[in-house]
Fold these 2 entries.
Entry 1:
Amino acid sequence: MVEDSNNPTTTRNVRRGPNRRQILAAGVAGAAITGFPYVSRGLAAQTLKFWQFYAPGGGVPSQDKWFEDVVKGWNASHEVKVELVYVPNNAYMDGTKLPTAFASGAGPDLFIISPGDFLRYYNGGVLLDLTPFMEQSARDDFLPSVIANRMVDGKIYGLPYEVEPMAMYYSVDAFNEVGLTEKDVPKTWEDLLSVAKKLTNQKRYGVLFETNPGYYQNFTWYPFLWEAGGDFQTKDGKSAFNTPATVSALKFWQDAINTGVAPRKPLGGGAWDSVPNLGSGYCAMQNTGIWAIAQLREGAPDFKYGVFKLPTPPGGKYLTIGGGWAFVANAKGWNPKAAGEFTAWALGSPKDGSTGRIVDWCTKAKSDMPPTRSALEAGKAAFENGFLKIFTNEIYPGARAEPRMPPPVYKAISDAIQSCQLNGQDPAQAAKAASDQIDSFLSGYKGAPIL
Amino acid sequence: MQDQTAETPRGADLEAPSIDRGPRLSNVARERIAGYLFVAPDAIGLMIFVGGPMILSLSLGFFSVSGFGEYAFVGLDNYRRMLGDPLFWRSVQVTLLYVIALVPLLYGVGLGLALLVQADTRFNGAIRTLLFMPQTVSLVVVALVWQVLVIDKIGLFNRLGASIGIGSISWLGDPRFALGTVIAISVWFLMGFYMLIFLGGLQDIPKEYYEAARIDGAGPVQSFFQITLPLLRPTSFFVLLVSTVTAVCGSQTFDLIYIMTKGGPANSTSLAIFYIYQQAFQFNEYGYAAAMASVLVVVLMAITVLMFLLTQGGRFTNE
């Protein structure tokens, strides 16, 4: 403290607080301290960033643990480490996180995609060819119908770890309430609407199909199109959408709404969400996927339900759709070679334990069908048990791979479904309008084959 | 330490003989510089974080952008495509309907509520808090709660309807009602904010005017139209401008649509801002989305200029 009792002026002029230099120094020190984590992170050894919506800290502990275990297993035996980066589901699926990362050249080294997004990333040139990292036997282990939509020109660009076939679920109590039994589960579209009518009352809908527009709605509608004998593309790359099959599939969903047996809005996240819809009693039958087994097990353990395969139209052949996600590696990432090696090691290398990982995912972490023959065999006991047995023996055999198509084709089909289902448009007109749009797009399309 | 005490203490130089440091700035010039310095952080921030991206976005509209680092100059192709895109025009139509309904509703409800709760009583204070409450809740929560309230058949509104013999209405699943429902929820969410703005405006009106009007025999309706409304001109301008911008491209608008309807059913709630988002982030059509966003900005600027011209920027005179 500076003080001169003989000079009051001097005493008055001495600043008791910090001076400018001290403030500046404190600021620099503060910035250094607060910035330290970033600096240290920047200096730390680089890792392969693996973006997905399961771990660390995801909502389902068993799935979180599976991802953590896979990465732990790799990191324990490899020099280049993998780091899991959790992206919330809604930010991942339809959000901006992944697209903006790639648009700015900062896409993750590893990520997961569904067939619906395959062409977007393949045509963007960021999917790494995983074929060189796999042995021939491992490549052959994947079921052709499952791996086909992750391949271009015989090369594999994504390794699936699950197959998620669509089916129909029903509430046993609701059936009993109106005097129906397991023997009454509908086998045809007509049956379905008729049973749904019996199950509909003032508080409950008979059946639920997806009504929210988006990739998922298209995904759930495709099997009905296929069952009626329709498709969206001919072998020579032209639109096959304007057919009686398309019209009948569009009309089937339209009838479900118009007759009042299906709601226009599902509860919860959508018609994929079984607990708030079937589990809560909002509907008595629900069109959803194999994952509903795990959902109901966790969210409504006392709920009694049954599963049956999708009903067919008159003269139609049973088919369903098998969705599911796959690991992919970024060809323009920090270390594509290591990313490719990790992907193959995790899911495409039985000698390194990939079969066990797939079985664990499909039977413990989730309830799914496996994409490989070896996993189907290794997990036989689980796949032949409970509801999975119905999927293994009755539903999965009719699964066709989820189509991969560019956004304009998806959008044209989505608009046709929406306008017929919810806006009363004539299915024949909607099919023609969508077909014209698809043709117009396909005539100038230059990307990988649409499957 | 002794040496330090011998030094001239800091600040003492104020009393030291002045040193000739060249011509000094006049007070006016110094004030002007100070003014610019005060404004500088905001101006620089706006230029970097708003102006820059706007210019980049405008430029992007002339390119085909892959979303993976590839850009190809396409001139006016994106703008030509816009002209022939029925979904774009549909989204413009939906946006117009949304703005035409939402802006007057927000104005009327906000002002009406402000008039009802303007008296400074404890009860009114509690009501104001309740009316403002939706603003403090996350919009995601708001959307999810409303989704359940208006759900088909078992939602609160349908149960109330059923009790008086009205059949189930799909408020968000029927194209005839979906946009109206979104508008109603938007009004519910935003009305507290605009009520607060109007309350501020009402407090600025001197009480003497009302007393004088009363002495002259004016009733409440006359007072409202002759005093309140004209003197709320600056507030009205602000409310109309902000609510229009909010309706066209506000985050509240986007969030509600994104969570509750995803633009459906059958594109009936696909506002332009949502369609732009879809094109950019779901379809990787960044160039096309940027072109549409540029058009939206130009339209908004035109509306703003028009509002300025019609209302003199909310000023009372041409000062």
Entry 2:
Amino acid sequence: MIGIFRNVCLWVDDRLHVSKLFAATAGHHVPKSSGSWFYVFGSATLLCFVLQVVTGILLAFVYVPSASQSYETLMALSYEQPLGWFLRGMHYWGSNFMVAIMFLHMTQVFLFGAYKYPREVTWISGCILMILTLGLAFTGQVMRFDEDAYWGTGIGAAIMGRVPFIGQELVHLMLGGPIINSDTLSRFFALHVFILPGSVIALISLHLRMVLTKGINEYPKPGHLVRRETYDQEYAAIIKKEGVPFFPKAISKDLIAASIVIFGILFCTAVFGPKMPNGPADPTQIVTVPRPDFFFLWIFAVAALLPDYTETFLLLAGGPVILLILFALPFVNNTGEKSWRRRPVAVITVILAYVVLGILTYLGHTSPWSPDMGAWTSAITEKSRVTGRSPFELQGLVVLQNKQCRNCHAIEGVGGQRGPDLANIGTRLTRDQLIRQVIQGGGNMPAYGNKLSPYEVDALVAYMVSLRPEGQPPARNSTVPGVPPKDQAALPPKPQGES
Amino acid sequence: MNTDSNKEPEKCGCEGKEKSNRRDFLLKVGLGLNAVAAAMVGIPVIGYALSSFLQKYPLKPISLGPVSKFPEGTTRLASYHNPYSRKWDGDTAEIPCWVRHISNNDFQVFAINCTHLGCPVRWFDQSKLFMCPCHGGAFYQDGTHASGPPPRPLYTYEWWVENDELFLKGGILPTLADPMV
């Protein structure tokens, strides 16, 4: 019996060359030092991709990429289809994990100098995979085709519309027509399920092929420099001396990492569930606050914070410039030190990149530059900001509330964050300065001169002058020293000689 | 070509060379035929894929309904059916816009899209401002820039009144590349 089984195996191997294929791929020799916890992120990203393909295909059993029906099919997937919520959750969290782990992989490769000679193509194919993965993430959020997706696509079109000469054509190409509609969704669907995954598979093949031909980076030793003339022999010597087959000798940590990733995705799916669409894509429903998924929040923040005159240039050129730097990196920095312990610039670059992305993502999440559209009707006013005021000042409070000032100006943190908090405004600006600011606007504030009667302006400013901590005098005009404002006349005059 | 291959065996006296020349010829014919075939398939395929790139979308006249829907001195949200819509567009075929009836037969019709990055602006009648929920752009009642990052006033539609009915010319998503008016 065993003899027959053995013969069948040998026959299959003879016809299909399985053992040769194995020796050339999973069984290829890697430096023993690469069996490190730092080297698990690449395989973990690949695992996420495989999960995305499997769950994505299963979601496509039910999902209909049509503007009129996608919302209903997502609802059916989430609430009616048995285990549909589970597949949606796995796909959503799988994408988050994939983006996050991919950046960890990239960071590790950068810090360990793995992009240097002779692995330039490995690095470049990885950079293209990063773009494709982000493309999958962006097109994936459009698949929800909710309010965020609709207006998010609009943001993409508005950026395209800034391209000189062919902006309009690019907008039409991106949207599949002159406006966001079902053709837009179909187009993004084709990108999300055919074009981008197909490209990813092609690039992963190249990426892994390079791992096989040029080897995996040995764990760098501080002070051991890469030289083009000697590296290949050195690497061959390492493989000869301490090379181990990837399977089964160096794969153990990858396997453990893989299970942690799967457990993580399962945990998030079970605890947080899939991300639900936040309302059908109905453009007439304009009471909406469009926000992208978290991995694009930093771009959303950049679009709000860039100075006007740099915006178009940086929105269009920023991406290509970053890519150019990434592509050029292995050629500019081809040899030399690989260990991060002796590459302080590399370490600082990574820290800076993460801090900047982290802060921008936080700002994109909180969006302090956006008016709080409901604050004028819902933001409360503390009792201490009401009591003790004259009827005239209270009229000013009504103006402040009714004219939507609170949408941009918080009082003690309650309200919009776009403009300065008004809690102690009376100590910062004089009555005259406040009147000028209200009437003429400026410094990013609209002018209210023709929207308020003189009486309303007076009342509003009187109320704002009263907004100051107990016992503190109102702001004084520094250009007229020694002349206290009218309502400060009761205070003792300033001693002469004090500036 | 043929004459060359006929002569060659005499020159070198080897039959393999003749075969090789025939193979070269067939290879060239094969490559040539496939180049023609690839062009015959590829050009229409590229044309299809880039059709929206090549196609023009002229603005079309659209009715917003009777003028009485827009009382004088108000700014109201209206919507119209997009002339370039598909049957399966669902809600996305209905496009909103802001109609400002200034006086008598004087109107302004604004696109819903902020000129910064296209988010839907909201009208606040009390402060006479359009505010954008995305990056904090604000516009005055006549569409001019009030504050924030928008690089230009609100996009406006060309409008006219015919038999007490308000019309506009629309159908596209206005962007800086094609602001309609």
